Protein backbone atom coordinates (compact mmCIF):
# COMPACT_ATOMS: atom_id res chain seq x y z
CA UNK A 1 0.00 0.00 0.00
CA UNK A 2 1.45 3.36 -1.00
CA UNK A 3 1.89 6.35 1.27
CA UNK A 4 -1.03 8.09 -0.42
CA UNK A 5 -3.30 5.07 0.13
CA UNK A 6 -2.33 4.32 3.71
CA UNK A 7 -4.67 5.41 6.45
CA UNK A 8 -2.86 7.55 9.01
CA UNK A 9 -4.17 7.73 12.56
CA UNK A 10 -4.27 11.16 14.19
CA UNK A 11 -0.80 12.09 15.40
CA UNK A 12 0.74 9.18 13.46
CA UNK A 13 3.26 9.77 10.65
CA UNK A 14 2.95 7.15 7.95
CA UNK A 15 6.24 5.37 7.19
CA UNK A 16 5.99 4.37 3.54
CA UNK A 17 7.22 7.80 2.37
CA UNK A 18 10.57 7.52 4.11
CA UNK A 19 10.83 3.82 3.27
CA UNK A 20 10.38 4.59 -0.41
CA UNK A 21 13.16 7.16 -0.32
CA UNK A 22 15.45 4.73 1.49
CA UNK A 23 14.66 1.85 -0.86
CA UNK A 24 14.94 3.99 -3.97
CA UNK A 25 18.37 5.40 -3.14
CA UNK A 26 20.44 2.26 -3.93
CA UNK A 27 18.70 1.84 -7.30
CA UNK A 28 19.14 5.53 -8.05
CA UNK A 29 22.83 5.39 -7.13
CA UNK A 30 23.35 2.39 -9.43
CA UNK A 31 21.55 4.17 -12.27
CA UNK A 32 23.54 7.38 -11.85
CA UNK A 33 26.88 5.54 -11.49
CA UNK A 34 26.27 3.48 -14.64
CA UNK A 35 25.35 6.61 -16.59
CA UNK A 36 28.40 8.46 -15.26
CA UNK A 37 30.77 5.57 -16.05
CA UNK A 38 29.46 5.01 -19.58
CA UNK A 39 29.16 8.69 -20.50
CA UNK A 40 32.67 9.46 -19.21
CA UNK A 41 34.13 6.48 -21.05
CA UNK A 42 32.48 7.35 -24.35
CA UNK A 43 33.57 11.00 -24.12
CA UNK A 44 37.16 9.79 -23.53
CA UNK A 45 37.04 7.24 -26.37
CA UNK A 46 35.71 9.62 -29.04
CA UNK A 47 38.87 11.71 -28.69
CA UNK A 48 40.69 9.09 -30.77
CA UNK A 49 40.90 11.30 -33.88
CA UNK A 50 39.20 14.22 -35.60
CA UNK A 51 36.55 12.01 -37.23
CA UNK A 52 35.46 10.30 -34.02
CA UNK A 53 35.57 13.66 -32.23
CA UNK A 54 33.21 15.20 -34.79
CA UNK A 55 30.87 12.22 -34.60
CA UNK A 56 30.91 12.53 -30.82
CA UNK A 57 29.90 16.18 -30.99
CA UNK A 58 27.12 15.40 -33.48
CA UNK A 59 25.73 12.62 -31.28
CA UNK A 60 26.01 14.80 -28.18
CA UNK A 61 24.11 17.58 -29.97
CA UNK A 62 21.32 15.15 -30.82
CA UNK A 63 21.27 14.16 -27.15
CA UNK A 64 20.81 17.83 -26.27
CA UNK A 65 17.82 18.02 -28.61
CA UNK A 66 16.38 14.89 -27.01
CA UNK A 67 17.03 16.40 -23.57
CA UNK A 68 15.10 19.53 -24.50
CA UNK A 69 12.18 17.48 -25.83
CA UNK A 70 12.09 15.30 -22.71
CA UNK A 71 12.27 18.27 -20.37
CA UNK A 72 9.45 20.01 -22.26
CA UNK A 73 7.23 16.94 -22.18
CA UNK A 74 7.49 16.42 -18.42
CA UNK A 75 7.67 20.07 -17.38
CA UNK A 76 4.29 19.72 -15.66
CA UNK A 77 4.47 16.02 -14.80
CA UNK A 78 5.00 15.86 -11.04
CA UNK A 79 5.25 12.07 -10.78
CA UNK A 80 8.13 9.61 -10.20
CA UNK A 81 8.22 9.11 -13.98
CA UNK A 82 8.44 12.86 -14.49
CA UNK A 83 11.31 13.06 -12.00
CA UNK A 84 13.23 10.25 -13.71
CA UNK A 85 12.73 11.67 -17.21
CA UNK A 86 13.62 15.17 -16.01
CA UNK A 87 16.80 13.83 -14.43
CA UNK A 88 17.66 12.05 -17.68
CA UNK A 89 17.11 15.27 -19.64
CA UNK A 90 19.46 17.21 -17.36
CA UNK A 91 22.09 14.47 -17.54
CA UNK A 92 21.96 14.31 -21.35
CA UNK A 93 22.34 18.09 -21.55
CA UNK A 94 25.43 17.83 -19.35
CA UNK A 95 26.86 15.19 -21.72
CA UNK A 96 26.62 17.77 -24.51
CA UNK A 97 28.43 20.41 -22.47
CA UNK A 98 31.14 17.91 -21.52
CA UNK A 99 31.55 16.65 -25.09
CA UNK A 100 32.12 20.19 -26.39
CA UNK A 101 34.65 20.83 -23.62
CA UNK A 102 36.68 17.63 -23.94
CA UNK A 103 36.49 17.84 -27.69
CA UNK A 104 38.17 21.23 -27.48
CA UNK A 105 35.25 22.86 -29.29
CA UNK A 106 34.27 25.21 -26.46
CA UNK A 107 37.01 25.71 -23.87
CA UNK A 108 38.52 29.13 -23.28
CA UNK A 109 41.75 31.06 -23.77
CA UNK A 110 44.74 28.73 -24.19
CA UNK A 111 47.44 31.20 -23.26
CA UNK A 112 50.43 29.66 -21.51
CA UNK A 113 51.20 30.48 -17.90
CA UNK A 114 54.08 32.97 -17.59
CA UNK A 115 57.03 31.46 -15.74
CA UNK A 116 56.94 34.15 -13.06
CA UNK A 117 53.57 32.87 -11.84
CA UNK A 118 55.02 29.49 -10.92
CA UNK A 119 52.95 26.46 -9.94
CA UNK A 120 51.86 27.55 -6.47
CA UNK A 121 48.16 28.54 -6.28
CA UNK A 122 47.80 32.30 -6.53
CA UNK A 123 45.23 34.90 -7.53
CA UNK A 124 46.82 35.63 -10.95
CA UNK A 125 47.01 31.91 -11.68
CA UNK A 126 43.40 31.43 -10.57
CA UNK A 127 42.24 34.21 -12.91
CA UNK A 128 44.04 32.56 -15.82
CA UNK A 129 42.52 29.20 -14.88
CA UNK A 130 39.02 30.70 -14.95
CA UNK A 131 39.71 32.28 -18.34
CA UNK A 132 41.11 28.98 -19.68
CA UNK A 133 37.77 27.23 -19.12
CA UNK A 134 35.54 30.31 -19.23
CA UNK A 135 33.70 29.63 -22.49
CA UNK A 136 32.79 26.13 -21.35
CA UNK A 137 31.42 27.45 -18.06
CA UNK A 138 29.42 30.13 -19.85
CA UNK A 139 27.99 27.47 -22.16
CA UNK A 140 27.02 25.35 -19.14
CA UNK A 141 25.38 28.33 -17.43
CA UNK A 142 23.53 29.28 -20.61
CA UNK A 143 22.22 25.72 -20.94
CA UNK A 144 21.22 25.76 -17.28
CA UNK A 145 19.42 29.08 -17.81
CA UNK A 146 17.52 27.70 -20.81
CA UNK A 147 16.24 24.74 -18.78
CA UNK A 148 15.45 27.04 -15.84
CA UNK A 149 13.33 29.30 -18.04
CA UNK A 150 11.33 26.34 -19.34
CA UNK A 151 7.88 26.93 -17.80
CA UNK A 152 6.37 24.21 -15.69
CA UNK A 153 6.08 22.67 -12.23
CA UNK A 154 8.79 20.00 -12.65
CA UNK A 155 12.25 21.53 -12.00
CA UNK A 156 14.18 18.22 -12.03
CA UNK A 157 16.02 18.87 -15.31
CA UNK A 158 17.56 22.18 -14.32
CA UNK A 159 18.17 21.00 -10.77
CA UNK A 160 20.17 18.09 -12.23
CA UNK A 161 22.16 20.41 -14.47
CA UNK A 162 22.85 22.74 -11.55
CA UNK A 163 24.21 19.89 -9.43
CA UNK A 164 26.41 18.64 -12.30
CA UNK A 165 27.87 22.11 -12.83
CA UNK A 166 28.23 22.85 -9.12
CA UNK A 167 30.12 19.67 -8.25
CA UNK A 168 32.34 20.19 -11.28
CA UNK A 169 33.35 23.58 -9.90
CA UNK A 170 34.13 22.00 -6.53
CA UNK A 171 36.35 19.41 -8.23
CA UNK A 172 38.11 22.07 -10.33
CA UNK A 173 38.93 24.18 -7.28
CA UNK A 174 40.36 21.14 -5.50
CA UNK A 175 42.50 20.22 -8.50
CA UNK A 176 43.73 23.83 -8.65
CA UNK A 177 44.90 23.78 -5.04
CA UNK A 178 46.33 20.30 -5.36
CA UNK A 179 45.22 16.67 -5.12
CA UNK A 180 47.11 13.38 -5.26
CA UNK A 181 45.26 12.03 -8.30
CA UNK A 182 44.31 14.82 -10.69
CA UNK A 183 43.42 12.42 -13.54
CA UNK A 184 45.84 13.94 -16.05
CA UNK A 185 45.66 10.87 -18.28
CA UNK A 186 42.02 11.59 -19.09
CA UNK A 187 42.79 14.94 -20.69
CA UNK A 188 43.04 14.77 -24.50
CA UNK A 189 46.12 16.26 -26.11
CA UNK A 190 44.39 19.49 -27.08
CA UNK A 191 43.58 20.16 -23.40
CA UNK A 192 47.03 19.33 -22.07
CA UNK A 193 47.66 23.04 -21.44
CA UNK A 194 45.21 22.85 -18.53
CA UNK A 195 47.77 20.92 -16.48
CA UNK A 196 49.53 24.26 -15.99
CA UNK A 197 46.72 25.10 -13.60
CA UNK A 198 46.92 21.88 -11.59
CA UNK A 199 48.21 22.30 -8.08
CA UNK A 200 50.93 20.20 -6.46
CA UNK A 201 50.21 16.46 -6.04
CA UNK A 202 49.29 16.58 -2.38
CA UNK A 203 46.18 16.59 -0.28
CA UNK A 204 44.88 19.83 1.19
CA UNK A 205 42.25 20.47 3.88
CA UNK A 206 40.00 21.80 1.11
CA UNK A 207 39.34 18.27 -0.13
CA UNK A 208 38.13 17.17 3.30
CA UNK A 209 35.98 20.29 3.63
CA UNK A 210 34.51 19.73 0.16
CA UNK A 211 33.64 16.12 0.90
CA UNK A 212 32.09 17.07 4.24
CA UNK A 213 30.05 19.82 2.60
CA UNK A 214 28.67 17.51 -0.09
CA UNK A 215 27.91 14.82 2.49
CA UNK A 216 26.00 17.39 4.54
CA UNK A 217 24.06 18.54 1.45
CA UNK A 218 23.25 14.97 0.42
CA UNK A 219 22.15 14.10 3.95
CA UNK A 220 19.86 17.12 4.08
CA UNK A 221 18.23 16.22 0.79
CA UNK A 222 17.89 12.58 1.85
CA UNK A 223 16.11 13.56 5.06
CA UNK A 224 13.84 15.91 3.11
CA UNK A 225 13.06 13.04 0.73
CA UNK A 226 12.05 10.82 3.63
CA UNK A 227 9.73 13.49 5.00
CA UNK A 228 8.28 14.60 1.64
CA UNK A 229 4.50 14.14 1.42
CA UNK A 230 4.44 13.23 -2.29
CA UNK A 231 6.22 10.59 -4.39
CA UNK A 232 7.44 13.11 -6.98
CA UNK A 233 9.46 15.08 -4.44
CA UNK A 234 10.79 11.90 -2.90
CA UNK A 235 12.05 10.59 -6.24
CA UNK A 236 13.41 13.96 -7.39
CA UNK A 237 15.43 14.43 -4.21
CA UNK A 238 16.53 10.79 -4.18
CA UNK A 239 18.00 11.13 -7.67
CA UNK A 240 19.82 14.31 -6.67
CA UNK A 241 21.14 12.56 -3.55
CA UNK A 242 22.49 9.81 -5.80
CA UNK A 243 24.24 12.43 -7.91
CA UNK A 244 25.77 14.10 -4.85
CA UNK A 245 26.87 10.67 -3.59
CA UNK A 246 28.66 10.11 -6.88
CA UNK A 247 30.34 13.51 -6.56
CA UNK A 248 31.61 12.51 -3.11
CA UNK A 249 33.08 9.32 -4.60
CA UNK A 250 34.77 11.37 -7.32
CA UNK A 251 36.37 13.65 -4.74
CA UNK A 252 37.57 10.62 -2.77
CA UNK A 253 39.18 9.27 -5.96
CA UNK A 254 41.05 12.58 -6.30
CA UNK A 255 42.69 11.80 -2.98
CA UNK A 256 43.68 8.23 -3.88
CA UNK A 257 47.33 7.96 -4.98
CA UNK A 258 46.64 5.24 -7.57
CA UNK A 259 44.55 5.45 -10.74
CA UNK A 260 41.62 3.05 -10.74
CA UNK A 261 41.23 1.01 -13.96
CA UNK A 262 37.62 2.07 -14.39
CA UNK A 263 38.03 3.48 -17.90
CA UNK A 264 41.14 1.67 -19.14
CA UNK A 265 39.18 0.02 -21.97
CA UNK A 266 38.01 3.42 -23.21
CA UNK A 267 41.51 4.87 -22.87
CA UNK A 268 42.85 2.03 -25.04
CA UNK A 269 40.15 2.80 -27.59
CA UNK A 270 41.32 6.42 -27.64
CA UNK A 271 44.88 5.24 -28.21
Q: What do these coordinates show?
A:
This protein is mainly alpha-helical and 271 residues long. It has one domain. Helices cover 66% and strands 0% of the residues. The chain is built from nine helices and no strands. The chain has helices spanning 16-45, 50-73, 80-102, 123-132, 134-148, 156-177, 205-227, 231-254, 264-270. Helix 3 (80-102) packs antiparallel against helix 5 (134-148). The longest helix is centred in the N-terminal third of the chain and has 30 residues, at 16-45. Mean pLDDT is 83; it is low at 1-18.
Question: Which key terms come to mind for this protein?
Answer:
271 residues, mainly alpha, 66% helix, 0% strand, disordered N terminus
Gist?
The chain is an all-alpha fold. Helices cover about 65% and strands about 0% of the residues.
What string, H for helix and E for strand, traces the elements in order?
A: HHHHHHHHH
Major sheet summary line: none
How many DSSP H or I helices?
9
What count of structural domains?
1
Q: List unreliable stretches of 5+ residues.
A: 1-18
By oligomeric state, this entry counts as: single chain
How helical, in percent, are the residues? 55-70%
Averaged pLDDT: 83
Radius of gyration: 20 Å
Question: Span between N and C termini?
Answer: 53 Å
Assess the beta-strand content as a share of residues. under 5%
Amino acid sequence: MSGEQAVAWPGHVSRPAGGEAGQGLPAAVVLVVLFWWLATGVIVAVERNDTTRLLGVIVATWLLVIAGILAARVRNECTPRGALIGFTAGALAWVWVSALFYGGIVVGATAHVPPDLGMAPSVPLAIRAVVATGWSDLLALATLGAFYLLPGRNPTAWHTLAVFWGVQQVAKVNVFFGVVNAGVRFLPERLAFLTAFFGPPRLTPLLVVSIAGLVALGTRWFLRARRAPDRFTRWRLTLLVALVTLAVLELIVLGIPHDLPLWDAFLRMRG
